[in-house]
Amino acid sequence: MITFGSYLAKKYTKKDLIDQNSTEIYAFLFDYIFSSVTYDLSLIFIGIILKKIVATLIFIFITSPIRIFAGGYHAHTRLQCNVLSYFVFFSYLYIASIKFPSSFIWQISCFIINWILILLISPVESENKQFTDKERTSLLHKLFIIFTFITFFTFTQLLLRNIEEVFYINLCLIICTLSLYAGYSSNKS
To answer: What's the rounded Cα separation, in Å, for the pair 135 and 55?
Structure first.
């Protein structure tokens, strides 16, 4: 089956913009980018329709960078990945619509506990993605940068008394934590 990525890679190879030996790598990269952008745009569209755009944007901006640098559970097929990804997103929106704990202590505790759990196990390797010590250190460094930005954003929301947004952030961190530990345990078995 010809994918969008393989079409682009072959087109650029014919124009000598891509080396013949790198065509498959670029095809994978183009497919990955296309899939990621399509997924994020579809989430935004769903968020607009369901009038949950703030929750949706927080989901995208919190889970995506953590997933990139920390890893997590990987489905065996693209279809399984899509079904699982949308299931997680709709579950998140459902839980986000329930009355949230407004306790400052609960919010801070949840935030800290999840970040500790995430940083303890990150980055999680998968069958197709093994890390050298240098790669592991680099990913962990990037994850600390993401952690800094998310912490700043979260505490800004707390100072502004936007407890609902902090609840969304914590839900995203719980999702990332669960994904990381599911990925870790599935890779070890």
So the answer is: 32
Output the pTM of the full model. Answer: 0.86
Q: Output the CA–CA distances (angstroms, integers) from residue 1 to 4, 6, 44, in the order listed.
A: 10, 9, 28
Q: How confident is the model at residue 1 (pLDDT cuts 50, 70, 90)?
A: low
Cβ atoms < 10 Å from Cβ of 124 = 23
The pLDDT value recorded for residue 189 is 63
Could you tell me the sign of the dihedral formed by the alpha carbons of 148, 154, 158, 161, in that order? Answer: positive
Residues 6+ apart with CB under 8 A from 166: 107, 111, 154, 157, 158
**Predicted local distance difference test score (pLDDT) of residue 184:** 87
The three-point CA angle 70-97-53 to 5° equals 65
